[in-house]
Amino acid sequence: MVLLLQACSVTLNDRVLADTRRTAGKDLRISDGFVFQHLLTRPMSVTELGQRLGVTQQAASKQIADLEERSLVSRTPHPDDARSTLLTLTRRAHRAITAARVARARVLEDLEAAFGPDYVDELTIALQQLSDHTGALARLLRREHRPAAEL
Fold first, then answer.
1. Of the candidates 5, 2, 3, 23, the residue with the CA atom closest to the CA atom of residue 123
2. Which of 7, 34, 68, 100 could form an S-S bond across to 20 if both were Cys, CB 3.0 to 4.6 Å?
């Protein structure tokens, strides 16, 4: 069953990424979302972002340089510390976030069309129970999910 859940998760994730790329750019990566989830709440320093991602400042800096190169993140002067900058999401990053939300909604619509809303409701309840047991959604909402090896 675990393998089945993983296979479905990977397949649906790939579909969301493909749809998002069609709308917001072919260079988007799954790992971008791990950074977006933190910067969506507020601008922050590279050091703080690295701490939140659970990586070194050097690894976070490398990721940010890549995101800047792809026009997904920008740096702004820190209002209280002239030696520091804050990272913010660009308009392109916000377009990617919106595109991913739309893509996830399309997946849900496709599942409802294929299996019916009652089935999707039952599946949602079962997945919620699994999430409650494992703490999966709680970790996601606390923004604790991290990329496997891309950073």
1. 5
2. 100
Full-model pTM: 0.86
Res 148: pLDDT = 54
Per-residue pLDDT for 141 more than 80? no
Query: The CATH number of the domain where 132 resides is what?
Result: 1.10.10.10
Q: By residue range, what is the domain housing residue 128?
A: 2-141
Q: Is the dihedral of CA 71, 44, 51, 137 positive or negative?
A: negative
Helix, strand, coil content of the chain in percent (nearest 5): 70, 5, 25
Query: How many angstroms separate the CA atoms of 47 and 38, rounded?
Result: 13
Q: How many CB atoms are closer than 10 A to CB 45?
A: 17
Cα separation, 104 vs 65, in Å, equals 28
